[in-house]
Amino acid sequence: MAENTEHVETSRDQDINPWSVEGGRDEAGNAVSIDYEALAKKWNTSLIDQALLDRFERVTGHKPHRWLRRGLFFSHRDFDRILTKKEKGEPFFLYTGRGPSSGSLHLGHTIPLTFTKWLQDVFDVPLVFMLTDDEKALFKDSLTFEETMHFAMENAKDIIALGFDLKKTFIYSDLKYISNHFLMNAWEFSKLVTFNQVRGAFGFNESTNVGRIFFPTVQCVAAFATSYPEIWTDEPQTERKKSIAEIQCLIPMGIDQDPYFRLLRDNAHKMKYPSPKPALIHSKFLTALQGAGGKMSSSEPNSAIFMTDTPKQIKTKINKYAFSGGQVSVEDHRRLGGNPDVDVSYIYLTYFEDDDAKLDEIYRSYKSGELLTGELKSMAIKKLQDYVAEFQERRKEVSDEVLEKYMTPRRLEWGGTAQPKIK
Ligand code: TRP
Questions:
Q1: Beta strand 15-17 pairing with 20-22
Q2: Is the Cβ atom of 264 under 6 angstroms away from ligand 1?
Q3: Is it the case that residue 298 has pLDDT exceeding 90?
Q4: All residues at 6 or more sequence positions from 362 whose CB lies less than 8 Å from its CB, including other chains
Q5: Do domains 70-286 and 299-395 have the same CATH topology?
Q6: Distance between CA 252 and CA 284 in Å, rounded?
Q7: How many angstroms separate the alpha carbon of residue 190 from the centre of ligand 1?
């Protein structure tokens, strides 16, 4: 137990890495919101601006998703190059992943994935979906490889329930799938990367197990088109091909995953068959029910809405735990108004209310005190109940046979770009 309990908390910088996300603290030790612009600056990513969104709309003919319009996907690397590919009709593909650390998803997990599904619809291109059951067993001492592989299968069913198109989607467990060209890519890439580079990117030390040190290679080379020879052509490929390596990849992800892909972008051109630097698009984290500085976490059940929650559980969690920017009494609220910027129910509405004008009106009326906390909470409850219920309906349809189809390596079919010419 801490002996020095009088010790006054001092300020702390935010600490964001692939294994933990901690917001900063102010002088008094209070949690402050994550400063995403500072992070983008520190990591040297580009912020998504209106010009990029306008170009996106011109190129795709689609209005940008509300998560783009509202800056919830806020940063990128080379996303503009993907738009150029789309414009020219040149092939590219999507890659994303999930670490199967538990049997089911919470709402926060679904955000980058739902966004990926939207990108797949808009771009009409193939998607490869990696389940890192190897990573989760390596990084969590309490989990065995059998357990994480089992979670991977359960998670895959949830992922399918988000609506990915079977024809264009290949989902795989690392423990089951990685072999052949994928494995060769991993070894070749590992030869290009030193311990110093990995330590720099991930903070490892001499006592880190060697599995953890090698694993980043695996997550990286999943962005090489040659890792999946089957998805591009029916003809068996005995060797990796230069023309396949040249297909660029776009990776949607939470910003915490960026360190992996910096490593990749720094080394992709050194492969025998070089690949273009993958493009990245980064999301913010869905705020925990408790508000500022935290993200939803499976290990803290009261911080998260789970995709298995009943309508009643959702209602109770929002009413009981969702941090409120309202005043303590109705009289004060009417007089002083609320603070939507820190209000978790309002923040959730920014994710799930599509109508911009309606959202603006909610913001204005909450701030002025016309709209009460209870009313705001019930709007958020309704939106979340609908999103989760629709998910649960689709989840019921995902049988073992359906799962098997998505997880079978096979030629994918898409219409949004030309087919690659394989030489
Ligand atoms: N490491 C990620 C996690 O723990 C899983 C992952 C693998 C991933 N490849 C990815 C996430 C690509 C985003 C993009 O969740």
A1: antiparallel
A2: no
A3: no
A4: 340, 346, 349, 353, 371, 376, 379
A5: no
A6: 11
A7: 18
Residue 302 exposed, middle or buried by CB count within 10 Å (0-12, 13-18, 19+): exposed
pLDDT tens column, 358-398 = 999 999 999 999 999 999 999 999 999 999 999 999 999 99
Higher pLDDT, 96 or 23: 96
Give the number of the atom of ligand 1 that is nearest the alpha carbon of residue 112: 13
Question: In 3-state terms, what secondary structure has residue 16?
Answer: strand
Q: Whose CA is nearest to atom 14 of ligand 1?
A: 96
Q: What's the mean per-residue pLDDT of the chain?
A: 95
Indicate the burial class of 402 (C-beta count within 10 angstroms; 0-12, 13-18, 19 or more). Answer: middle
CA dihedral 334, 336, 337, 340 (to 10 degrees): -150
- What CATH code is assigned to 70-286? 3.40.50.620
Q: How many residues does the chain have?
A: 423
3-state secondary structure (DSSP) of residue 200: helix
CB 375 within 8 A of CB 366: no
Query: pTM of the entire structure?
Result: 0.96
Confidence of residue 4 (pLDDT cuts 50, 70, 90): very low
Mean pLDDT of 22-27: 88
CB distance 132 to ligand 1 below 6 Å:
yes
Confidence category of residue 10, pLDDT binned at 50, 70, 90: low
Q: Are strands 73-77 and 279-283 parallel, antiparallel or unpaired?
A: antiparallel
Q: Where are the beta strands (DSSP E) in 178-257?
A: 248-254
CA–CA distance, 15 with 256 (Å, rounded to integer):
10
DSSP state of 286: P
Name every residue whose Cβ is closer than 8 Å to that of residue 294 and which is 6 or more positions away in sequence.
23, 31, 287, 288, 303
Compute the CA torsion angle 172, 175, 181, 185 (nearest 10 deg): 110
Give 65-93 pLDDT, tens digit per residue.
999 999 999 999 999 999 999 999 999 99
Domain boundaries, the chain: 70-286, 299-395
Question: From atom 11 of ligand 1, which residue's Cα is the shortest distance away?
Answer: 97
- Ligand 1 center–CA 40 separation, angstroms: 19
249: Cβ below 6 Å to ligand 1? Answer: no
pLDDT above 50 (res 263): yes
At the second CATH level, the architecture of 299-395 is: Orthogonal Bundle (1.10)
Q: Is 266 exposed, middle or buried (0-12, 13-18, 19+ CB in 10 A)?
A: middle
Span 179-191, pLDDT tens digits: 999 999 999 999 9
